[in-house]
Amino acid sequence: MFEMSRLIRNEWMKIFKRNSTYILIAILMGAVFLFAFVSSWSNNQQSQSMPWEEQVSQQMNVYEQQAAQSENMEEKIYYQDQVAIAQHRLEEDIPPPKHTGFTQYLLDSKSNITFAVLFTVIIASGIVASEFTWGTIKLLTIRPVKRGKILWAKYFTTLLFSLTLALITYLAAIIGGMMFLERGDGVLLTMVGDNIVEQSVWIESLRLYGLAFVNMIIMTSFAFMIGTLSRSNALAIGLSIFLMFTGQQLVFLFQEYAFVKFYLFTHTDFSQYLQPNPMIEGISPLFSVTVLMLYLIVFLLVSHFSFTKRDIAT
Predict the structure, then answer these.
(1) Where is the chain membrane-spanning (predicted)?
(2) Cα–Cα distance between 223 and 216 in angstroms, integer?
């Protein structure tokens, strides 16, 4: 255990000895602040919206129609809950979060995780491949440490780095939102059992970021595998970024085919389970977790055997 922690610490120090790491973090924070500023500017350019009571009444009518038309029981219950929440708002004079306010912005800011995923992919793909590029791999392998431990130390370091970037993204979103967005802009409500209760924006935003972090883990592991297998930093980054931006589109392209249920990117977006219908009919949170775990095991096994069994050559 001590040896593994020492290896992880060494890999962590390697990452933060590079100036490029600090540049990536600065770009990440700048992008998050820019997102907050653009959100504020865009909201200020919009015309005055209708009173919130009218908006909620219209939404409630839509939910009632959807509940009446739905043949799926889970979907029907979801829309019935939304009707009850909307009715409760009108009766108790509880406004929803404004689309121009801090609360809604913080919930929407989970999309900033995309930047964190992009930068983590760059680190994950190069943490092994760069050792071959720079010719330092032989210095690692002549140490009295098994290759497997070296590899796992690098992998755990990339996960720790991805968590760090996710936390930086969340904190930057909070700071940016407080700087540019208005506060005190409404109340989140949710249904717990048969009761309607106030929902904490902090807990809900952390939950959304946590769901987005699932995709971050998968993309980090995939980039790590490609970098280990190909020993090419450029290939790992290019392929990972390509799939990151096209993976979801391929789900909709092949949604009529049965094999799409087992396609990786069908399951990486866990926020789909916050809605009544997932992207593909017949999948569930448990099924998604199972599929993702199988993919993750494959990624790690391929990485392990590629690194430990192949000859080291620069």
Answers:
(1) 21-42, 113-134, 155-181, 208-227, 234-254, 283-302
(2) 11
pTM flag (> 0.85) = yes
Question: Please, are residues 188 and 199 in contact by the beta-carbon 8 Å criterion?
Answer: yes
Spatial contact of 153 and 309, defined as CB atoms under 8 Å apart: no
**Are 203 and 216 spatial neighbours (Cβ–Cβ below 8 Å)?**
no
pLDDT 10s digits, 157-187: 999 999 999 999 999 999 999 988 877 668 8
DSSP-assigned states of every residue in 87-155:
HHHHHHT-PPPPTTBHHHHHHHGGGGHHHHHHHHHHHHHHHHHHHHHHT-HHHHHTSSS-HHHHHHHHH
The count of C-alpha atoms lying within 13 angstroms of the C-alpha of 51, restricted to the half-sphere facing its C-beta, is 6
Question: Tokens at residue 8, please?
Answer: 């992880």
Please spell the DSSP secondary structure of 133-150, one letter per residue: HHT-HHHHHTSSS-HHHH
Instruction: Identify any residues that bridge with 197 across adjacent strands, giving them in sequence order.
Output: 190
Q: Would you state the pLDDT for residue 242?
A: 86
Under 8 Å CB-to-CB from 135, ≥6 apart: which residues?
A: 314
Taking the C-alpha atoms of residue 187 and residue 208, their distance in angstroms, rounded to an integer, is 17
**The predicted structure's pLDDT at residue 142:** 65
- State whether residue 199 is helix, strand or coil: strand
Query: What is the overall mean pLDDT for the chain?
Result: 86
Give the least confident one: 54-58, 92-96, 126-130, 134-138: 134-138
Q: Which residue has the tokens 């924006």?
A: 201
Two tokens, residue 306: 């590629």
Which residue, among 278, 152, 292, has the nearest Cα to 219 in the 3D structure? 292
- N- to C-terminal Cα separation, the chain: 30
Task: List the one residue out of 282, 280, 271, 274 whose CA is nearest residue 253.
Answer: 280
Residue 245, phi then psi, degrees to nearest 5? -95, -15
